[in-house]
Specification:
Layout (H helix, E strand, L loop, with lengths): L3 E4 L4 E4 L2 H8 L2 H12 L4 H9 L5 H5 L16 H19 L10 H10 L36 H6 L7
Antiparallel strand pairs: 1-2
Helix pairs in contact: 3-5
C-alpha cells in the first residue's frame, strides 16, 4: 500500500500523489471546509463588519435551522449576539488604546529598562569546585551511577570519558 494523504479540513484520506492532491485542494468542498475552519478564528470587529452588510436569515430566525449553515449569505446572528460582539470589540479597542501588553506578557520597554538597570556581575568569582546541584537522596546509596546522574564538578569534567556515557 502506498502513502496516504490526510486532509484535516475534510477529515478524509486518499492516495498521496501530486494529481490527486491538486484535485482535492482545488475542490469546492475542501475550499468551503477550509474557509469554515478559519472563520472560527475571526476577530469580533471583522465579524461585525461582515454582519452589518447582511440581512437576517428568515429561515434561521423562525425555525432555528438553515440548510446553508455557515455558508449562508444571510446573517445568523441575533441582535443580542451582535450586541455581545460590539462589547467584545469595544473591550479589545479599550485594551489596545491603554497600551496594555498582549496575552499577559510584560511591556517590551519595561524589559529593556530592567535589563539595563540590573546588570549581572560576570566577573567569574563563582566557586566551580562545589557542585551546583546535589545527588537525590534515593541515589546516594548507589555506588555505580552512570555519569549522567552523578553530580557535576570541575574535576569530573576534566577526567570524564564521554565514550562511556553510551
Amino acid at each position: 500500500m502506498g502513502k496516504t494523504y490526510y486532509c484535516d479540513y475534510c477529515d478524509r484520506s486518499f492516495k498521496d500523489d501530486v494529481e490527486a492532491r491538486k484535485k482535492h485542494l482545488s475542490s469546492m468542498q475542501h475550499m468551503t471546509n477550509r474557509a469554515n475552519h478559519y472563520s472560527m478564528f475571526k476577530d469580533p470587529e471583522t465579524i461585525l463588519k461582515e454582519e452589518y452588510n447582511k440581512t437576517p436569515c428568515k429561515r434561521y430566525m423562525t425555525v432555528g435551522d438553515c440548510a446553508f449553515g455557515p455558508g449562508c449569505r444571510f446573517s445568523h446572528y441575533t441582535p443580542s449576539m451582535i450586541w455581545e460582539l460590539q462589547q467584545l470589540a469595544a473591550m479589545k479597542n479599550a485594551k489596545v488604546s491603554a497600551v496594555q501588553p498582549r496575552d499577559g506578557w510584560p511591556n517590551s520597554e519595561d524589559i529593556i529598562k530592567e535589563y539595563f538597570e540590573n546588570v549581572i556581575d560576570s566577573s567569574g568569582t563563582e566557586d566551580l569546585s562545589q557542585p551546583t546541584w546535589s545527588t537525590p537522596a534515593g541515589l546516594v546509596n548507589y555506588p555505580y551511577l552512570p555519569p549522567s546522574l552523578r553530580p557535576v564538578t570541575s574535576e569530573r569534567m576534566m577526567d570524564c570519558d564521554f565514550s562511556k556515557w553510551g
